[in-house]
Amino acid sequence: MRHFSLMSLLSEAVNAHRGWDRQWRSPEPKPSYDAVIIGAGGHGLATAYYMAKQHGMRNIAVLEKGWLGGGNTGRNTTIIRSNYLYDESAALYGHAMKLWQDLSQELNYNVMYSRRGVLILAHNTHDVQSARRHVYANRLNGIDNEWLTPEQTKAFCPPLNISRDARYPVLGAALQRCGGVARHDAVAWGYARGADAMGVDIIQNCEVLGIQRGPDGAVAAVDTSRGRIATRRIGVSAAGSTSVVMALAGLRMPLESFPLQALVSEPVKPVFPCVLMSNAVHAYISQSDKGELVIGAGTDQYVSYSQQGGLQVTAHTLDAICELFPQFSRMRMMRNWAGIVDVTPDRSPIIGTTPVSGLFVNCGWGTGGFKATPGAGHLFAWTVAKGEPHPINAPFTLDRFRTGRLIDEAAAAAVAH
Amino acid sequence: MLLIPCPHCGPRSELEFHCGGEAHIARPTNPAATGDQRWAEYLFYRSNTKGVHAERWLHVHGCGRWFNVRRDTISDRFVTADQIRSAEEGS
Questions:
Q1: CB distance from B41 to chain A under 8 Å?
Q2: I need a surface site. Which of A2, A168, A245, B86 has the fewest CB within 10 A?
Q3: Per-residue pLDDT tens for A348-361?
Q4: How much is the mean pLDDT over chain B?
C-alpha cells in the first residue's frame, strides 16, 4: 500500500499521477479462512481491519453480495453524534466517537470528519424537558452535550428562524459540539484499503447462499456464489439483510427491515454551518462539502427490501424543513433513495454471540449505524476474535430479548421509527 | 406510496392505512406456563421475510377493519388481500 503524504502527492503530481496503485485487490476466494465476515459495508470492513490490526488475524475474508460500501454505508446522511440516553448506549456510541477523532490518521485516509456540531431542536415544553434530561444524563456519562437558549441556537445556526410566531417555535436546543459529519464512502474505502494492506481478502460480487454446520453444530463453511469456503468463524454484518443471512443458519431474529429514505438538493454555496435535527417535526438537515443539502427522512411503516420507499415520507420531511427554513423552499431536490435498515424492538443494536457456535452477529443498528462504524467494527472484531463480547458491547446481546434487559433507546434516537 | 387492495373497500391510497406488522403470530394460550424464550419469540422475533410476507393492515381512515395480505417485500406488490372471518384468521 502506497502511503499518502505530502511527499507522495508531490511526487505523483510531477509524474502525472501514473504511479498510484489500486487501493485494494480483487482476489479470488481461497478454499478456507480463519474467519469470514459477511457484508463489506463500513461495519464489516472496520471489523476486518481491527481483526487484522489488533488481533493478528490476517487469514480472513470479507464477502459482499454487491460492491463494497454500496448498501447503507453509501446511503446514510453521514451524521456522527453520541448523545444517547442510557449508560450502555453512552459507552457504546462514546467509544465510536473517540475513534472518529483520529480515524483519518489511523487509516492514512482522509475521511473528512468535520466537527461542526449537531443541534437537536426543542419546539414545546415536552421537548425542552426531554432534551435537558438528555443533556444531564449525557454529562453524567462524560458525553459532550449542552443546552442552548433560542438566541444561542440562532447564533450557532444563523439560518434558523426563532421568531415566536413561527409554526414550530424554537424553545431551545441540545448541542453536541463534537458531533458532525464524515465522508461515508471514504470511511468504507479507508477501512477497505487498510484491511487489504494487512492481507484481508475483500471479495465482492460474492453472495452467501448457505451456512454449513458440522456434526457438533458449529459453523463449518459458507456456500457462496463463488464456491464453498471453509471457516470456523463467521461474523454477520449485513444490516437490512441480516434476517436473510441468519435464516441460512436456521435462526430467526428480533428484527424488521424497513426502507429509510434520504435526499439531496442541488449544490449551493455554503449556507448551513452545522447539523440540525428536530424529533418533533421530523427534520434532519446538513450541507455536504459539495454544497448539497443532505436531508434525512423517515422509515416506511412496512417491511420491505425494495430500497425505495413512499414519496409521502420524504414530502413529510420537506414540509418540516420548509417551515423551519422558508429560504430553502425553492431549492430543487436532485436525488432521493432508500437504504434497508434492520430495526430491533428496543432500537439498540445486537453485537455478540448467537445460539450457533462460531456464528457472531452485528446488527440492529436501525436508522443510526453510520455514526457507530469505527466503534462497532472495533468491538465486533474483539467479539469474533475472542469468541466473547468486549465489556462495552456485553449488554447488547441477542439474549436480552429473553431476559428482558432491553436498552430502550426508542425515544432517544433522533428520527421517528 | 402503496395502492392497497382493501378487501372491503377496494384499492385505496396507503395514507388511509396503518400497517399492523407480521400476521399469524398467535399469543401463547397459557402465558404463565410459557418459558421466557418462547415469550420473547412471541413478542419480538419476526420472520422479516424477503419475498412473500404475510401481514395485517388496518383501514383506519376507511372501513376501520383489519385484514390480511400477502405482499412481496422485494417488489412491494400485493399478492392477496383477504377479509378476516374468524379468530384463527385474525391471529
A1: yes
A2: B86
A3: 999 999 999 999 99
A4: 95
